[in-house]
Amino acid sequence: MKFGLLVTTGPYQHQASDTALQYCRAALEKGHEIMRVFFYNDGVNNGTRYTTPPQDDRNIVNAWSELAKEHNIDLVICVAAAQRRGIVDEGEAQRNGKDGDNIAEGFRISGLGQLVEAGIECDRVLTFGG
Amino acid sequence: MTMLHTVNKSPLDRNNLDSCMSMAKKGSKILLIEDAVIGAMDNTAVAEKIKGAMNDFSFYVLGPDLQARGLDEGKVIGGINVVGYDGYVDLVTETDNVQSWV
Amino acid sequence: MAEPWEEDEGPVKKFMFVNRKAPYGTIYALESLEVVLISAAFDQDVSLVFTDDGVLQLKKGQTTDGIGMKNFSPTYRALEGYDIEKLYVDKESLDARGLTEDDLLVDVQVMGKAELADLMDEQDVVMSF
Lengths: 130, 102, 129
What we know:
Distance between the termini of chain B: 22 Å
Number of helices of chain C: 5
CATH superfamily of chain B: DsrEFH-like
Largest interface: A-B, 21 and 18 residues
Strand order of the largest sheet of chain C: 4-3-2-1-5
Shape of chain B: globular
Number of domains of chain B: 1
Strand content of chain C: 15-25%
Low-confidence stretches of chain C: none
Radius of gyration of chain B: 12 Å
Order of helices and strands of chain C: HEHEHEHEHE
Order of helices and strands of chain B: EHEHEHEHE
Number of helices of chain B: 4
Number of domains of chain C: 1
CATH architecture of chain C: 3-Layer(aba) Sandwich
Distance between the termini of chain C: 41 Å
Low-confidence stretches of chain B: none
Helix content of chain B: 25-40%
Strand content of chain B: 15-25%
Structural class of chain C: alpha/beta
CATH topology of chain C: Hypothetical Protein Ychn, Chain: A
CATH architecture of chain B: 3-Layer(aba) Sandwich
CATH class of chain C: Alpha Beta
Oligomer: heterotrimer
Number of strands of chain B: 5
CATH superfamily of chain C: DsrEFH-like
């Protein structure tokens, strides 16, 4: 089955990002496909590479990057939500006159249409939020 | 159609599970995850309500979330199925649609 | 073979957006509305449900000058222009908050939980904010 995920809370504050990751791993293990994970609301904070948790804590951002690389998952951060919360890639930084970007590896910034498209193309869309 | 409803807030703190149960059709599956897992335990202030609702819905609870919170699987309300993340995935594929009561 | 105009149609799925939170206290109401507006561009079968504190999103007379936030409630009135006309409001949630249909700023269908349950059951995609 082809899954799309919607993550609406940031990492660490809520368990939702962890649950979404565990769900992805279990689904992939069973041979399902994760087409896209769409990060919205505070969920966009899953995609900043400046995340530096204590050494004995899990690194949720890296976990997404690694999972995406290994299983070819499209990690999409909503542009409007990202702009509000200061998550930028190189293009966004240039367009908005910022002095740097902070997007993590394997993530890309795009529009809300990507979420609707996932809804159209996937067999199921699951929301993980707080 | 059969729907899977997931609830992740404690029913002792928030109304998510009540809202879910009031809008889920008879025969729906309800999976308690994250902070909602306390709702699966026997002898809580909401246990009788859950037991009553079991006539209409099948309840499931995510085992890893019980364990993380030190909640004993042996004290889960009889008839509620404890599942892992793999069981969570199966519940999604076995049903026709999912609603997350976040 | 499909005719060109048929190919343009694309799949139409039933999308339901469930709004359960009051406006302003959290951003969910506003950002849900943004998804709804985008979904209109995809020509899908879109419906909105307002239940629990979500019914407050449609309350008339929102005046946000005092809290320094933008009043986005007029946007609900613009939904019709995007062909989003299926707005369903949970009667029980209105009652619980001492509100009636007259308190709402757009035309909606007020219905009971059983009817809402039937509607939710026939959706392809349900997103909750």
